[in-house]
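pls design
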């Protein structure tokens, strides 16, 4: 186990089954609440699937050609699959400011800073959740998603970043309920789409993220 500032930093190779990951997060959340395990930041990839957040509208599931998993995070439908880096965070906000808005803002900032290390200019967009960038073909497009759940001040779920996923899979849903803007990836932008580079960038930017929570 690798610990960074008392947080387990875990990187899983290959593809991780979604229900297994959800069960692992639930178990770790309970352990963190009980003081029986360290907090966790977990980087992984999933097989192709859709997840439905607590605000998911069935009308936005256009073509359920992939498995659909209900999840307790906030938000609507999103896609996960190979070529997309997912980050799950089980952090104790009771010791980190007890401010969910601050947590989400800091999480967005962490991903934006990491993408900058990959020479991708990303930003927040007023009224639109997620991480955005400018694509020469698609215009303003989403490159990352944010979806979290907080139970008794301990967080679950986190973010996803599109490195080189099959973007056609997003066509089966209205991603995050936003129909007027497209989805892009590092590969579509002509940037290096390597999980190891993104992981290194996330790790380099981690101290600022944690500082922003206090």
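designed seq:
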């Amino acid at each position: 186990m690798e610990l960074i500032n008392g947080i387990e930093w875990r990187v899983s190779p290959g593809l991780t089954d979604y229900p297994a990951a959800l069960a692992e997060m639930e178990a770790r959340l309970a352990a963190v609440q009980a003081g029986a395990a360290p907090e966790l930041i977990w980087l992984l990839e999933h097989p192709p699937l859709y997840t439905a957040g607590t605000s998911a509208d069935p009308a936005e599931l256009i073509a359920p050609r992939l498995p659909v998993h209900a999840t307790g995070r906030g938000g609507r439908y999103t896609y996960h699959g190979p070529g997309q880096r997912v980050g799950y965070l089980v952090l104790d906000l009771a010791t980190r400011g007890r401010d969910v808005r601050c947590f989400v803002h800091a999480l967005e900032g962490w991903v934006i800073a990491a993408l900058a290390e990959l020479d991708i200019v990303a930003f927040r967009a007023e009224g639109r959740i997620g991480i955005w960038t400018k694509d020469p073909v698609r215009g303003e497009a989403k490159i990352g998603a944010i979806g979290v759940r907080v139970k008794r001040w301990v967080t679950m779920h986190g973010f996803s970043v599109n490195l080189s996923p099959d973007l056609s899979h997003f066509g089966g849903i209205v991603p995050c309920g936003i129909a007027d803007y497209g989805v892009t990836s590092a590969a579509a932008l002509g940037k290096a789409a390597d999980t190891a580079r993104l992981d290194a960038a996330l790790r380099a930017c981690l101290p600022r993220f944690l500082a922003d929570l206090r």
